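User: Teach me something about this protein's shape.
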Amino acid sequence: MRGFQLALIYANWAGSVLFGWLHNPLWLLIPIFAWAGFAFGATAAIAKHQKAIGVANSQYARGMFWPNMQLVGRNAGINFVLFGAAWAASIIFGMMR
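Assistant: First, the predicted structure itself:
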């Protein structure tokens, strides 16, 4: 899971910088959906594993809702900042020409 998570981080950062430079705000939806899919997908996989090994009445998935939302919000926020910085840099460098 760690390698996939790192790939997701770097891909989102690169996309935020690239699409910020190109002034494409629709990109900002991608990090939100990517991180939500990752966080809630991992939680669902763990809950499924717990059910398979016989953990009775696990509340794991329910207890992970807010931590997952924090993960999504924090990582989307980082991407928003990178996007905004790249957008501003493209304007500044465009004005210097």
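Now, about its shape. The chain is about 80% helix and 0% strand. The CA atoms of residues 43 and 62 lie 9 Å apart. If you'd like, I can walk through any region in more detail.
User: That's plenty for now, thanks!
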